[in-house]
Every structure is written in C-alpha cells, then in structure tokens.
Amino acid sequence: MYAVRDDEAALDIVQDAMLRLAEKYGDRPAEEFPLLFHRIMQNAIRDWYRRQKVRALWVTPFAALRGARFEGEEEDALDTLQPADGHPVAPSPPDQLERSQVLEILEQEIARLPARQREAFIMRYWDELDVAETALAMGCSEGSVKTHCSRAAHALADALKARGITL
C-alpha cells in the first residue's frame, strides 16, 4: 500500500504476485519463496506504474472527449459540480464542437494504424486488457504486444502533433 498509495490496487498486486509465485515457482524449495515473492512484487509494482502512466496518457483524454458514460461507469464528482448560484454549467457549444472534432481525428488516426498495432493499442488502452490477455487474444507473444503498442502510441502521438493537437 505504501508503494502504490492505493489500497485496492495494492491488494490486487499482492494477489497477482502470490498467484504468479504459486504458478511459476511452486516446485521450488520453500526457502526461495521470500526472495522470489519480493522480486515478483517489485516487478508487479513497476508494471502497475507503467500502466498508470499509459492510461493517464491515452485513456484519460479519450474519456474526457467522449462525454457519455458507459454502462456501469461511475460518475465523476467534477461533472456535477455547480457554481454558487446553483445552476449547472454545461460545456459551451464551441467546447463540444472541439471535443467532437478531436475525437473524430483520433478515430481517423487510429484507423490509419497498421492492423496489428491498432488491434494491440485498442485492446491494451481502450479495453484495458493486460499484456498477457492481449497476447492471448492476438495469438502472439507478450513482447510483440508491447512492441505493437509502443509503435502505435508513437505513431499516434506523431500524427496528432502534426495536426497541431496536444493531449
């Protein structure tokens, strides 16, 4: 909990680390478990921070642009924030237009990605699958998923920058 400062994420990380230890190292002597578990935990925490960084880069801007919520998605308190006079503040028409235009450009640029990059990018950052799940769904190695996602992210960033869009 100290490392990630999020109780629920910390519990998930510990549970995943324990499962990895049992699955991959169950045949090892018990004396090796503490060191193996410590290493698995370190790697899991690093992976968590990497995912948070990527989500902050890609998922948050998509969520801000989309406006509508998906079923089961929690409402953000800032969305319902009202000024002192009690009247809700709706996005202005120019803001709504800008959001819809940027979202359309993002969709166009994602569609221009090579098929494998697009597939990996959408599964990882939109569907929020982890690397192993994405690799399984795509029928490739985890390293290939990471490569496809990295190339897609760089290509999208370059394409959006060329259009004058910064997220």
Strand residues, percent: under 5%
The strand count comes to 0
The class by helix and strand makeup works out as mainly alpha
The number of helical segments is 6
Spatial shape: elongated
Q: How would a crystallographer describe the biggest sheet? A: none
Work out the oligomeric state of the chains in this entry. Answer: single chain
Mean of all residue-level pLDDT scores: 80
Termini separation comes to 30 Å
Order of helices and strands: HHHHHH
Note poorly predicted spans.
67-72, 76-81
Rg (C-alpha, Å): 20 Å
Helix content: 55-70%
List keywords for this structure.
6 helices; elongated; 167 residues; mainly alpha
Overview of this protein structure:
The structure is a single chain. With 167 residues, the protein is mostly helical. Helix content is 68%, strand content 0%. Helix 3 crosses helix 6 and helix 5 packs across helix 6.
What's a quick, concise take on this entry?
The chain has 167 residues and is an all-alpha fold. It has helices spanning 7-25, 33-66, 93-112, 115-126, 131-138, 142-162.
Record the SSE blueprint.
Elements: H1 7-25, H2 33-66, H3 93-112, H4 115-126, H5 131-138, H6 142-162
Helix pairs in contact: 1-2, 2-3, 3-6, 4-5, 4-6, 5-6
